[in-house]
Structures are given as C-alpha cells and as structure tokens.
Amino acid sequence: MTKAFVSYHHANDQHYRDHLAYLANYHHAFEDGSVVIGDIEESLTSEAIRRVIRDGYLRDTQVTILLCGTETRFRKHIDWELKSSMIDGLLNKRSGILVVELPSTNSNHWVAALPGEKDAIYPDYTSGWTAIETKAEQRERHPHLPERIIANLIKPGVAMSVVPWHRIENQPENLKFLVDATAKVGRTNEYDLSLPMRRKNYNTTLA
C-alpha cells in the first residue's frame, strides 16, 4: 500500500483531514504516514528546514497529499512541506504530489495528469479536455492553489493532478487509484524548485 503524508491548514481544514484518515484506516485508500508536526526553528536556513522536514517528518512516504482550502497558499509550513517533497533527501527520495481542492474553494476545475486518470475518475465527463499551458490560466482556474503548485502544473516533466474533494470524499477507490498513480510518477518528476521557501504566513511575498 502506498504511504502518504497529508499537508493541510490545521486551523481551517481539520475536518477534511480527519475524513481522509478515515478513508485510509477503514477503506485502505493509502497508508497514513503523517505525523504531528511541532514548530520548526525559523532561524535555520531554508536548506536546513527542508532537510528537517524531508528526513525528519516526511520519513519514507511516497506521496504528499495537499488538502487545499482558501488560505492554504499562505501557510509557510505547507510551503515547506511541498518543497521538501520535491527534493531528494539524505534518507528519502522525492515524492509525488496529489492536490485535493476542498469545497471552500468553490472550484469547478480539475487537472488530470496521471495515466488512466480520465477514465478512472471522470468517466462521466464528456465535454472535452483542454490543455492549460500558462500560469495565468492555471491561476484563473485554481485561484487558491499555492504558487509552488501552479509553477509545477505547467512544467514539462511533472505529472501532478488536482482533484475536487467530491470525487474522493465517498469514493475510497478513487483516492487509492490517485495515490498509487501519483507515487509512480513521483519517482521521475522533475519539479520546478525555483521559488524560495516561504518565511511568513499571510504574506504573498515569498522570502
């Protein structure tokens, strides 16, 4: 079973995190490798912070599941977890990343980047698929996604999917498919690592 770490805004989105744990523990959608993360010393360098998260907290997970609500993109710890998931550590290799947009975002869009995903998750979608190739287009469709995710959605060599919550909420088989497929592509994803790690919450400037 694929082992996954869940990244989310604890204050806003704990209910969704709890439901994801239910799908993991009782429906075997994935092995839950998340841990309770305490404060990380902010005086550390970005590289040191990344190493602490990658080798200390993400451990041997193969996928990072991002639960994305309306304030997720502003949270520094989430940004640290995302970037750390994209880089090989001393103990663990980079992970695949699966983005789940929560109902609070009111998103009516998705990104199906995984092999077989269109048939498995969206068999009822018959309106045709559109390739989105610019950051501006992705921001318009997914205004609440972190900038680090936006940058990688358009990067060649990265397969990263964005799925609406309702497609997995009561469908553990969908979640299992997405997590397993994300783990496979994560081994070869060549992520865009150009953005520095966020140092503050609720600040649109990364520093």
Describe the structure concisely for a colleague.
With 207 residues, the chain is of the alpha/beta class. It is built from 7 helices and 5 strands; from the N terminus they run E-H-E-H-E-H-E-H-H-H-E-H.
List keywords for this structure.
globular, alpha/beta, 207 residues, 5 strands, 7 helices, Rossmann fold, 5-stranded parallel β-sheet
Q: Mind explaining what this structure looks like?
A:
The structure is a single chain. With 207 residues, this protein is of the alpha/beta class. It has a single domain, classed as Rossmann fold (3-Layer(aba) Sandwich), CATH 3.40.50. Helix content is 36%, strand content 11%. The protein contains 7 helices and 5 strands. A 5-stranded parallel beta sheet has the order 2-1-3-4-5, with helices on both faces. α3 (76-85) links the parallel β3 (63-68) and β4. α2 (46-57) crosses α3. The chain is globular, with a radius of gyration of 16 Å. It starts with a strand and ends in a 21-residue tail after the last helix.
